[in-house]
Amino acid sequence: MVNIEETTTMAASWNEVFERSRVVPPPCQTVRLAVESHLTESHGFQLSLSRLTAAHLSQEKSEGEQDVTYQLRVTLFDRNHQQFFGKTWKSSPQKMKTTKISFNEVLYFHTSLRMLSTVVVLELVSLSPRPDGSQQALGRGFTVLELFTNRPEAQAADGDRRLNLHHGSPRSLLHPLLKDTVEYSSHLKTIDGAHFEYVLKNHQALVSVMHLLPENVLISGNENIPGLATSPTGDALLRPQLLKMLPFTLNKLTISLQPSLEKFESQLLELINADCHNTKQGPEGTLRAVVIQERRLHLGVHNGWCFLDKPQVVVLEPLARSRSDSSSKQSSLVKDSSTTLPPPQMLGLRSSLELKLTNHQALAIVFQLEFVFSAPIGRETMLSATSTSRAGFLQCVRWGIWFPFQEPADWKGEEIQIVLRGGAKPNPHGVMVYSTEMSAKTQSPVTLSPPGSAQEGKDTITFRLSSSLERKASSPKASLRTKQEEVSRQRRSPSSPLRGQRNIPPASPPDSPQGPGLSLSQLAATSRYPTIGHSSSALPWQQSFPSLLHPSPLASAHQLSHVACSGVSNIAHLEMDLQREGDASPLAPDEGAQLQELPFTPVHAPVITLGMNVPSSCSASSRSALAHLYSAGFPNIVDSDGQVAEVLDPTEPVTFDPRREEIDPLQGNLLVFQFLAFTRIPTAGVGPDWPDNIYFSFQFYRFPPVTSQQLKLLISDKVQQKASVPLPCVLASISKDGTVNSGSPGLQVQFKVDESFLRQGEKRWFLRYLALHTMHIDIWDSDSLLLIGSTAIELKFMLRQGRSAVQALQEVEVLTTDYVVEDILLTSADPGQRTTISPMTVQTIIRGQLHVRTGNIGCPVDPSKRKTADVMPSHPHIITPCVVTGGFRGGSLSSRNILRLNARNAAQAHRLEMDGDSGPLFGRGIGSDSFVPADHNLSEADGVRRKLGCMAAVHQREGKEEAEVTGEARLARGLNKMKPSEQHSKAECIANMLSQAITTQHLLYASLGSAEYIEFVLRNPFNTPQTVTVHIDDPELSVITDTEEWGYFKALTKTPTPLEENMFHLEEGAPGPSVYLRPKERLHIPLKYQSFICDHTMALQGPSFLPTGKGSQLAKKNLSNIVAAKTIKVTFKAEDGKPMAICQVNVEPTPHVVDQTFRLYHPELCFLKKAIRLPPWHDPSVADISHISVRCSDPNIICQTRMLVPGEPQDVYLKVPGSPSPLIKMFFVMVFTDKWMAAPSQIWQIYVHFLERVDVSCVSGQRSCQSLVLRGKQAVRKVKCFSSHPQEIEVDPEAVFVLPPAAVQELQLKVQPWRAGSRFLYVNAVDVENRRLVASWLLCLNVHRPVLSKAFEVCVPVGTGRGSSRKITYTNPYTSSRSFLLRSDRPDLLQFKEDKFQIGGGESYTIGLRFAPSQSPGSVEILVYVNNLQERTEETFCVKVNYS
Question: Which of 480, 591, 654, 696 has the most CB within a 10 Å radius?
């Protein structure tokens, strides 16, 4: 058992915060008025206190007050009730410079009293020292800051403001003349030339941390707020980050009151009854017994400021035996008032409680023991004992506090005992507590233990606290089976009266009910549980009230229903594992049991299947199309000698021989992508000339993503084009002014891959990438910024295989996916079989064909330019510390021999400087250059600057630089570091030099998801054995302690070092694993670096604009999404805590390869749940694919997979939180097929487009209108709206319109769909000047079939090349002349003789139909709509066409 002795002072950090957080409450009238005005939601604010200008104070200072400092005090004030509330905040003392005082403080607070009467009072106070050492505070003026405008519901007035200072003290606001005064300026005198500057803003980020701070409390960002992560900037409330809350379980709770529970409650009741007898009038001898109705425990988590959540309230039960009794594991409840049972000795909780805690020293668990008393109102009789003539009141009798994380956590798994407190001391609940000393004085027969006595003489609470994550839950099946067997056993065996009384107590309450505190009206009602009372004429534990099962006849129906409701709904029954075997009630064996999860696989339809709907790559173009394509004048792909590259046939297989690539003299590769043309394919809902302008987005290998410029689709007027055989449209680049460039057509993008780009051993992976992968390309409409479709081109045709240059022309299909729910409700033959869920079908639509020419040009590599670092070391994964043979030769500690010891550090610093100045370069070499200064004979000033530059870069890499300073300040600071001074002694410089001497630098190239394995050679330099502990300051770098995992990485990296089992010793709570080294022994420490987090920044959606004159040979390169560069220090500390060796791992990020790209569209602010089906794995390099795991680069996204039976398909489930429209969320999903997740087998790039959802219900063939609202942003924009299906959706206004800032533009949608079912369409609002997306809507159409008037059937011959003509007679049902429009849902198969006709009243008209020919037999149903001029459907005909 862990005993927590009672201390006179609480935890220093918690107590300090608790004392500061004690505030004056606001006026109750103001709180009530705010509630009546529905202002219950608290809002956060940020108040920046800049500076104060006061000329009169500078004059007084010049007269002799030289040591005076100034302080700013801020308090909230209610001017209607003339009351200060909250707590006064005081700034740090500042001195005056000239006439200004700079405070530069930032305050935060939140309040729900958004009333005109709520203001902030700021007072300027001068602090002057006294002879005794104290300070004298003198008011120098004050001002009043109004928080809210004339509208109570309005937000606070934001922006920079200035306030004038007034003479006097803020106490003048309490003068009766200022009551109900709105404007103080007429009553207060302003100080000339004195004003205060501040900034007041709404702070929405404070909403997430409001539960950590009380309301109406002014607090600065550097305050200690338990539960809030510290910020490197020092202001934790500017962008608050919450600490992770972990679940804990509190159980086996008992409370022991001294000298015993019976005597404690008897003394308490005697005091209360005596007090009632002295204060209340009535005839003498009248029995007015106050009884104890319930015993409750309030339990909450407090951070010194407030409770993190509303405290839980549970009902305690009297226990007959102590839980620590060895003869019984559990305590039993007192069942009745039988004298055979021993009197209860303590209070207990027979259930467990769940708490959410975070690891912080100032976090406390607060307990409050509260008794519920019942007192009679009038003359008490036997009948009134159970009626509502009794009033209830509450009283806190004890409270306690415990800090679970104040000391090292030695309480895990142990029983904890803390001392409860009493008396009038400040407590978190803010209530008066029953005093133990007063009871001891008034009750002489019983002596209570004084505060300084032993632990046994004090009131204590005992419990156990365990982590819910570590606690192993019992099997639901076993628990259920055990309870069923127990019930059947009890039913089979005849129980004696004693056993039945023990197992089924008739008046036993539920085990430890939990619920909120009851109101006084509820307490006045009959108790649901047995009430225990004490009087001098009755037994101490005699039950005073009957059970609710036998209510009094005088109780009304309202009272009974009210009590029953409160007992059932307000108090939840908790039945856990604390119930003793044999005490389980057979009436409800499953009450509170854990539900058993059934085998269930969630279905997130539709399931995206990898490998399906892959665009086909074929040469299906006709000879005329190829002739048209080659006559456009595209540039040729030529080798280094000017010869045209060899042409490969995409239809023939490609043979790949790695040896040919290794012996190729042209080791450099210039990879060329030429986007030549795009062939339109007619699609429903769009016109024949769509699209007009396009652009591409793609990513090749690990180069940055590329977004092309606008490309125009051109068709030559000289070529006669047939509708059945469309010709490819040549692509031509468009400048920003909209003109087509007259240069060579097409778009060419080049990537250079040579030895300067590739890392050691990476070339074989690059060749494998070309041989096995495809490159995903997204094709966009540059006018509407809508996705036309996606495609993928094979990269295997870019393998040269010893040739100087190769090229291949690929024609790939551009595909898009459409989700359609067929309308089966109206077509179902049996209305009784209609289902509420219609099947959703995924349709793949071909939007066009893309003509791309790929090429690879071999380039020679100059051997003199190859870096020495490119030479593959014998064992690149082994880090051997350098042995420094030369010692310190004396002299200055800043001499060049320190630079020799740190030569690698200087080289790294130089490389960092060059990378920082150049910025991201396309095709920049990622490998590091080994730089060592060649000339050490530099001048002293240049040498110092050079050293300072190296040190600054290294310190910046290590995260030691806190802020940027000027060059002169950096020079002065560096000189102080290198030359011994008062701040940096020689001992510190020598220690720093020795630390650098044992530090080994290692450069590590890392990419997303890939594990990098290294071994550090640790040597014990001492003649005695040592136990070394490994300290790592970054969780992404870890020590491999599993022997199987270690062997796997050694075999994977082919590291020929010994493998030792059980080498490390792991201790709970230790900073890292420890290892035992013999004297002078060398040991290999395995380390693994792996990061799953990367940067998700992406370029804005839209084409790129290139400068004039660049032509069409370039494209914009966006920043790559890579992991963050960092420096990780691994310290090997001996038993004395001193470092034995240091390994500094410099992580150099490299982009990763994207294998698959997905684009998903989803309504805004809604969770996206999607399942992606994994393809069958046929990788011969993967021996065991039973361990398939997934990771996501965004920790806020849930990504998981479930292992099913072999042979069954496996899905990856995604749950993505929503974002507002039109934001795009991008992340990566890594799929691992090995057990230890060494490298991802596939990396998916997923884009989720969040759009504003609009639901439209309409009838096919008929026009419906829907209104949208477009809101302006900060700048004036020229906007035009586009729809994904222009023939079905018209947007009004159709032309370009001006959208002013903060304006509201109403858009009218005219929806006229032609197919029944549920579909998804898109509408974009685009800034036509910048080609940027302003807003985006997702239209969810629910289209119903119209009511059919007539049905026809016609036969059309197949293969004749001729169509068929038919006629339908239509009669005008109106008496007046009307005009009608003819529409069809299949305009490609049916044409009308006239699309519009006018007919008189009652007359008939013959509709001429022309059916298009078909080359294949079959049948199709075509709907013919007869609409009026408003596109309202008058009649609908169904024509079934049989092609035979």
Answer: 696
Cα–Cα distance measured from residue 1236 to residue 332, given in angstroms and rounded to the nearest whole number: 50
Token pair for 687: 């016109």
* Amino acid (1-letter code) at residue 585: S
Residue type at position 287: L
Q: How far apart are CA 1220 and CA 1226, in angstroms?
A: 14
**Residue 491: both structure tokens together:** 């039913």
Going by the DSSP 8-state scheme, the letter that residue 320 receives in this structure is S
The residues with which 1244 forms a beta bridge, in sequence order, are 1156, 1229
Residue recorded with tokens 């005076």: 68
Beta strands in 474-554 (DSSP E): none
Burial class (CB in 10 A: 0-12, 13-18, 19+), 393: middle
**Residue 1383: what are its φ and ψ, rounded to 5°?**
-130, 155
Tell me the pairing of strands 1224-1232 and 135-146: unpaired
Separation between Cα atoms, residue 1220 and residue 1236, nearest integer Å: 38
Beta bridge partners of 793: 775
Which tokens hold the place of 327?
């003869």
Which pair of structure tokens corresponds to residue 332?
């039993």
Consecutive 10-residue averages of pLDDT for the chain (1444 residues): 54 73 85 80 89 76 68 91 90 87 90 88 90 87 84 48 88 83 79 88 88 89 84 85 87 89 88 75 54 90 88 87 41 39 76 86 90 71 43 86 75 83 84 67 36 60 82 41 42 39 37 42 35 34 31 29 29 31 39 52 51 51 76 88 91 84 87 94 85 92 89 77 74 85 88 85 83 90 92 92 92 84 45 45 83 93 56 70 53 40 40 35 30 35 53 53 48 53 66 85 89 94 93 94 93 89 88 93 95 82 58 42 81 92 90 84 91 70 66 94 71 92 92 91 91 93 93 92 93 94 93 90 92 92 91 87 87 93 92 93 92 88 94 93 88
CA distances from 1325 to 737, 1224, 1287 (A): 20, 15, 18
For 1353, the enclosing helix (H) or strand (E) is strand 1350-1356
User: Would you state the structure tokens that stand for residue 1329, as one six-digit string?
Assistant: 């000047």
Q: Are 986 and 893 in contact (CB under 8 A)?
A: yes
* Torsion region of 1391: left, alpha or beta (phi above 0 gives left; psi -120 to 50 gives alpha): beta
Calculate the CA 43 to chain-centre distance.
Answer: 22
> Within 13 Å of residue 1215, how many CA atoms lie on the same side as its CB?
7
d(CA 1238, CA 1009): 8
d(CA 524, CA 505): 26
List, in sequence order, every residue forming a beta bridge with 673; answer none if it has no partner: 749, 854
Q: Are 899 and 907 in contact (CB under 8 A)?
A: no
User: What's the order of all strands across the beta sheet hosting 1074-1077?
Assistant: 999-1006, 1139-1149, 1126-1133, 1026-1032, 1074-1077, 1064-1065
Q: What strand order describes the sheet that includes 1211-1216?
A: 607-609, 1168-1173, 1211-1216, 1198-1201
Residue of 1350, 1312, 1324 lying closest to 1430 (CA atoms): 1312
Among 1314, 1337, 1327, smallest CA distance to 1267 is for 1337
Helix (H) or strand (E) holding 1420: strand 1418-1427
The whole-angstrom distance between residue 134's C-alpha and the CA centroid of its chain comes to 50
272 contact partners, CB below 8 Å, separation of at least 6: 290, 373
- Length of the chain as a residue count: 1444
Cβ within 8 Å of residue 168, ≥6 positions away: 139, 141, 142, 188, 189
Round to whole Å and give the CA distance between 1238 and 1235: 8
* β-strands 607-609, 1168-1173 pairing: parallel
What is residue 386's three-state secondary structure?
helix
Report the alpha-carbon distance of residue 577 to residue 1085 in Å, rounded: 45
Q: Report the sign of the C-alpha dihedral through residues 518, 524, 527, 530, in that order.
A: positive
